[in-house]
Design goal:
The chain is about 40% helix and about 15% strand. The chain starts with 10 loop residues before the first strand and ends in a 5-residue tail after the last helix.
Length: about 400
């Protein structure tokens, strides 16, 4: 018997672009929902921005658009026309979820805000990805994860090395966390709707997502702990990064300090004389951070990273060699767990894409279905809504659909 998709029968209308909203739709599609993506005539901007990261942006090979939109059907509708909004309403009538990351002002203008959509389908679960939230002075401010997540959310300054400049932001990092949060909230609301019959509006903001992610440091800030910090002054002197003779860096996670310190001294750095001394307990060592970190730097720089990796592993100390994103393409752990996979594009080129980060034992990984080309399924979806071929052509002639 063919295995049923986990979200079999869940119908999602996606009115979203860039990353944060569409990646939520990608997750739902991966889990078996039927997702219809609505784009304007010029298309989702994600179709063209890949050039900034040296990525192809052709219709037959567009990996960055693929990442966020695989598994969906795509239609083109002009939401700035009355007839275009009617088409969207026709989609919404039979849908379970309406998903958007469009700003509230534009949604109200187009009559695609929650109150308008709820009149069409009172049981709809309306998922809205925002920049700063529904209230407050910044509620209508344009937002990307560069601004709402990294900058205002404390992430950039929280991650930078104190005394240097902020890092060049890793675009879409915050978008993906916010999108996954919205997917979780939508499914919780669907579960409640199925029990009570009541629709729901689910909001997730990039700014709030950053506060949640940086929550440890936000809360600690009220007691005087301030970011950024320097790797030379970590919370404890062994909970930091060390540079090796081959130029590679190693991150040590020394959280069970008192338990691990003897093995670290004997098996890793060969300094048994430190055991029992002022560096040997967490309570004591935090008073000697400025002293012990430089000592460790001088030790680690004498040997290559593989030398230290072998010793740390033998001693049972949690560690990792720092990797650049491109190195993950060759990481055997990724391939062993199907975190990455190879995909052949319509032009015959083969590339690497990633699976979404929730794995299921029984359900497995849903067969990959490429992202829709712009307007690829417009006719098909319109026919399913009951539009005649004559009406479809009329709407095309009037530039309502494409």
């Amino acid at each position: 018997m063919e295995k049923q998709n986990m979200l079999e029968g869940l119908k999602v209308v996606e009115f979203a672009n860039f990353v944060a909203g569409p990646c939520c739709g990608r997750l739902l599609a991966d889990w078996g929902a039927e997702v219809v993506k609505i784009e304007p005539d010029f298309g989702d901007t994600m179709r063209v921005v890949g050039v900034q990261w040296l990525s192809p942006t052709e219709e037959d090979e567009n990996p960055l658009f693929e990442n966020e939109n695989a598994g969906k059907r795509g239609i083109v509708v002009n939401a700035n026309t009355e007839e275009g909004v009617k088409v969207i309403y026709d989609l919404v009538k039979d849908a379970d979820v309406f998903l958007t990351n469009t700003r509230q002002k534009a949604l109200v203008k187009s009559k695609l805000d929650y109150e308008s959509i709820k009149k069409i389908n009172p049981k709809i679960v309306y998922g809205h990805l925002l920049g700063y939230g529904e209230k407050g002075p910044a509620k209508d401010t344009p937002a990307f994860d560069y601004t709402a997540y990294f900058a205002r959310g404390g992430v950039s300054l929280g991650l930078m090395e104190k005394g240097t400049s902020p890092c060049n932001t890793a675009a879409a990092l915050g978008d993906h966390y916010a999108g996954m949060s919205l997917a979780a909230g939508i499914l919780a609301a669907v579960l409640r709707r199925n029990r009570t019959g009541e629709g729901e509006k689910v909001n997730v903001a990039l700014f709030h997502t950053a506060i949640f992610g940086m929550g440890l440091y936000v809360v600690a800030g009220q007691y005087g702990y301030k970011m950024p910090i320097t790797r030379k002054q970590p919370p404890n002197p062994l909970n930091t990064t060390f540079k090796c003779s081959d130029g590679r860096w190693i991150q040590i996670a020394f959280f069970q300090y008192d338990k691990w310190f003897p093995n670290f001294c004997n098996m890793v750095i060969e300094r048994p004389e430190y055991i029992g001394g002022k560096y040997s307990t967490l309570k004591s060592s935090v008073n000697y951070v400025d002293e012990l970190v430089p000592i460790m730097e001088d030790i680690f720089i004498k040997h290559p990273s593989d030398y230290w990796c072998e010793r740390l592993q033998a001693a049972g100390i949690p560690f990792e060699k720092l990797q650049a994103p491109h190195e993950l393409l060759e990481d055997e752990q990724c391939w062993a767990n199907d975190y990455l996979f190879k995909h052949t594009y319509d032009n015959g080129n083969e590339g690497v894409l990633y699976n979404t980060p929730v794995m299921f034992e029984e359900y497995g990984i849903k067969d990959f279905v490429r992202a829709p080309k712009k307007g690829e399924h417009t006719d098909e979806v319109m026919e399913e809504l009951g539009y005649s071929s004559e009406k479809i052509q009329e709407l095309k002639d009037n530039k309502v659909i494409k």
